[in-house]
Task: inverse folding
């Protein structure tokens, strides 16, 4: 096992990715890090270090001194939050990536994972079964940063032989750590409100279909991609990845199968415009063919697991 550093480990993906990597490889060589000065409770046992990805010199020193071989770079502002702080979002989402790609280019890192998103697509992209290669004109700061990041990953891959791998995650649904300010967050919030009050006011309209995925599938996909033989990988930017696609109305109806009294109202806000610019469903043929990807959770199974596990 290679010594691994997860940057932004205290967030929605990081807490579960850290647990997934430690389950597979043991705790000792899997180091969680985040901006947070004290270790987030959700990270459990195992090494933790406070690191700010914006502090390029501190990150370089840590990676080199500690002989880190693999980095998962998760720190970023998500779509809704990024629209409120565009300058900062661009800085955070891009500068950290260069710090890590440069460390890999210099030979300090053997492998890097950097997440992209369905946000790389935009209003001119075909919205149903969006293919890997298509029109990409993202209209959010977040999407622009992810698209630029993908191009830089492909560049470092092709020009410098950097082994950087990436997934265009859909909206992720989980119950261990709350989401960090995205447009797809409603699909997590709804479960907390269903259990707390039996009703939910949704910030997207009832018929807004979006690509989503249960977190266990996302972690499994991440580990599968990182373990795939490099010669099998045809995509040097970021792989399309599909799980489940549904609308708020369809999700509400699934919850009503467990709680017939659950009610939902729709009060779309600025996030509706973001959702309307994103795909409704994703074609992930390259992931299926190159590293045998297949999602395990459908809407019914995901809903049941969420209702059983969300703690209020
Ligand atoms: P999150 O907001 O839940 O977590 C991000 C973590 O990064 C937080 O713990 C935060 O404290 C940390 N962080 C922020 N600034 C930092 C800094 N300067 N230095 C170090 N750590 C810092 O986000 P997430 O949902 O876990 O997403 C992780 C990555 O996956 C992001 O790049 C995001 O764009 C991408 N992604 C997420 C989703 C999703 O649905 N969650 C979908 C597509 C892509
Ligand atoms: C968001 O809504 O911003 C994220 C994403 C799909 O990238 N969940």
Result:
């Amino acid at each position: 096992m290679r010594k691994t550093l997860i940057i932004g480990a205290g967030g929605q993906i990081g807490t579960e990715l850290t647990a997934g990597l430690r389950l597979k490889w043991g705790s000792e060589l899997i180091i969680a890090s985040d901006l947070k000065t004290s270790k987030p409770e959700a990270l459990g046992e195992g090494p933790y270090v406070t690191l700010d990805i914006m502090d390029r010199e501190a990150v370089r020193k840590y990676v080199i001194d500690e002989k880190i071989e693999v980095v998962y770079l998760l720190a970023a502002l998500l779509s809704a939050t990024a629209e409120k702080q565009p300058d900062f979002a661009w800085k955070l989402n891009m500068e950290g990536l260069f710090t890590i790609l440069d460390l890999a280019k210099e030979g300090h890192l053997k492998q890097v994972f950097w997440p992209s998103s369905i946000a790389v697509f935009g209003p001119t992209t075909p919205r149903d079964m969006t293919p890997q290669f298509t029109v990409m004109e993202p209209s959010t700061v977040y999407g622009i940063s992810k698209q630029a990041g993908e191009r830089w990953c492909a560049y470092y891959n092709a020009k410098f032989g950097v082994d950087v791998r990436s997934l265009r995650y859909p909206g992720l649904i989980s119950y261990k750590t709350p989401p960090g300010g995205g447009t797809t967050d409603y699909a997590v919030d709804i479960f907390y409100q269903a259990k707390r009050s039996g009703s939910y006011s949704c910030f997207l309209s009832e018929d807004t279909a979006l690509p989503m995925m249960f977190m266990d599938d996302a972690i499994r996909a991440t580990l599968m991609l990182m373990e795939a033989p490099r010669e099998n990988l045809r995509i040097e930017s970021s792989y399309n990845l599909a799980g489940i696609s549904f609308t708020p109305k369809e999700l509400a109806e699934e919850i009503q199968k467990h709680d017939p009294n659950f009610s939902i109202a729709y009060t779309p806000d600025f996030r509706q415009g973001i959702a309307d610019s994103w795909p409704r469903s994703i074609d992930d043929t390259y992931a299926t063919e190159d590293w045998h990807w297949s999602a395990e959770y459908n809407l019914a199974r995901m809903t049941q697991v969420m209702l059983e596990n969300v703690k209020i």
The longest strand covers residues 30-34. Residues 86-105 form the longest helix (20 residues). The chain has two domains: 4-170+214-240, 174-212+244-309. The chain has a mean pLDDT of 97.
